[in-house]
Amino acid sequence: MASPRYLTKSRFKLAAECPTKLFYTGKEDVYRNTKQEDSFLAMLADGGYQVGELAKCLFPNGIEVDAIGHDAALARTNELLQQDKVIIFEAAIAFEDLFVRIDVLVKDGNQFELIEVKAKSYNSTNPEIVGARGDLLSGMRAYLEDVAFQAHVLRSALPTAQVKTYLMMPDKSVKVNVDGLNQLFKIERAGKRSKVITSPKAKDAQFNHDILAKVCVDDYVAMVMSGGVLYMDLKDKLPTLARQWSEAYRLDQKIQPLPGKHCANCEFQSKPGDGMLSGFHECWMDKFGFSEADFAQGTVLDIWNYRGKSKLINDGRVRLRSVREDDIKPHGDGLTLSVSERQWMQINGIPAKEDKGGFWIAESHMQKEMDSWTYPYHFIDFETSTVAIPFYAGMHPYEPIAFQFSHHVMQQDGSVAHADEFLMTAPDAFPNFVFVRALREALSKDEGTIFMWSAHENTILTRIARQLQETANPPDDASDLIGFIESVTKGGKRAMYDLFKLSKDAYFHVDTRGSNSIKKVLPAVLTSSAWLKQHYSQPVYGGKGAMTSRNYQDFVWWQQGQDGKPLEPYALLANYGADLLGEPLQAMEDPDDLVIAEGGAAATAYARLQFEDMKPETRDKINAALLRYCELDTLAMVMIVQGWRDFTR
Ligand code: SF4
């Protein structure tokens, strides 16, 4: 029998982003869904399952509804609700076509506490829920609407119940008082299902319960019920929307699309050649009569960092070519590329006399910056994670964890070495102080310029300096490490140089669509530079020549694709990783989880290594994939600098 098409809390949340998405969701064989991910991995990455399990420890008498399927879960919940006093985890409640699983439902006679547990950082000393004008802050609204939806279903199903509503979230202002709290819950995966393995120590753990703040949200839920649910730029009463959306979902009817700037992040977008339907294309064809040629020429959604998209869409000007110069008002200093000049270049193209072959470069500014650099050049990149529940006593929730760096060095003669790498993923091990010590060792052999791409590295080092100052048990060399951090971060005598900023100020390529992400800039530079093509078409990387590597051998990074352009190096990395895995994989290994070709996957991999019970061989494969990925991130910086040098020679 087909399972009922209920409007669940996740579908309610999806509809609040855009109600048309209800039609595309759950049809993964037909419509591409870029957010279709393993929910297990997503929970691992954001700390959701850790927080959920820790919350259960606060209710030792709680009973979990672990029945599979809607009907069985509803029946079990009803059975438990016959008791006068009961605490239920994952209580299943339905009303008409609405169905929710409540994280924690506390029943005492006719009094109910509905508790939604969220891996969302919260600061009880400075709770940010409403803004200065008394309206719900955008960062909290979705959570409060979620609770309001659950409360609506519960009150509708049990009309006489007195319901109080709560959010339970890790409190960043509280320090944990025991070591190893985040290692109490491991997870074991078996195919699509997973099982939490709770350490026998969990029931005796004397941890500070304030680490999870239980925040009464009755007033905010009342605001949602009276003021309505915000969806796109519209608002309507929650019961009205719940009825409309649940009916459309039950009947599998598409709610007419109202495309707007929210479409920029729509997950229902196919890629050319993937054989899937694209919800995004359907919506824009329906509403704006778009053709394939229109999509190829671009939409106003593509304009980089532009705030006027809604106005243009409301005016019916949705094609990139319909944007006029006075919409953008490009202006700058004549030396570097301002944001508005970059936007206008993206729309109107590069002026013919400044076009170097699909790209623009501020040669004098680039040259001046390069003249300020000192050899040998050091290129560094970090992989980091934030874990909801801290490793050690004295730490706050959501401390950043720096578990990996890569370091390339370029000498004045052009030789390049992958000089150092650091990776610390063992469970129980807090890497940050060892990480900084290894980084200091790697960078302290000379006074060459240190390069990063964006300010992330600066932010992480600054946070680690604070951890060194605040920890109850600082290492003996804490003051040396802090001194090193101060010297290489903003304001320091050897402050890291941000190549992202240089790219933003001085480089534009039509293929980047205005973006300065390293993953967009690298293929663009590889496409334009004759020197890079000639050099990296040979197996020069990781051989006996002038480029040493720790994770690649005789690798060819410039490989021509069908369109004559080079294949994207991050795609090559994914293919290389998949090839290296070989056969046979261990049982339960998913090749997609063992190939890491983007930063989000690296943080997820770190979470798996911390909290998943896995075979040593799988652990080794993930570590190897992390090393290859991080090495490419610093090699990408090397290649971009080599390309820019080629352009300014
Ligand atoms: S393309 Fe826009 S209108 Fe269509 S489903 Fe996505 S967000 Fe909604």
Briefly characterize the structure.
The protein is an alpha/beta fold and 649 residues long. The protein contains 24 helices and 18 strands.
Helix content: 25-40%
Number of strands: 18
Helix-strand category: alpha/beta
DSSP helical segment count: 24
Structural summary, described in words:
The chain is globular, with a radius of gyration of 27 Å. The strands form five sheets. Strands 1-2-3-4-5-8 form a six-stranded mixed beta sheet, with helices on both faces. A six-stranded mixed beta sheet has the order 16-15-12-13-14-18. Strands 6-7 form a two-stranded antiparallel ribbon. The protein has four domains: 9-251, no CATH class; 261-360, no CATH class; 369-498, no CATH class; 510-647, no CATH class. Helix 3 crosses helix 23. It has 24 helices and 18 strands. The chain has 649 residues and is α/β, with parallel strands linked by helices. The chain is 40% helix and 16% strand. The model has no long low-confidence stretch (mean pLDDT 91). Strand 4 (111-117), helix 6 and strand 5 form a beta-alpha-beta unit. The structure holds iron/sulfur cluster. The site of iron/sulfur cluster has 12 residues, from helix 9. Iron/sulfur cluster binds at residues 18, 20-21, 257, 259, 262-263, 266, 268, 279-280, 283.
